[in-house]
Amino acid sequence: MYVSYIPQIISNLSGTKGNPIQPLVAFINCTIWTAYGLLKKEKDWPIVWANIPGIFLGAATFITAIFNFG
Question: Which residues fall in a coiled-coil region (predicted)?
Answer without folding.
Answer: none
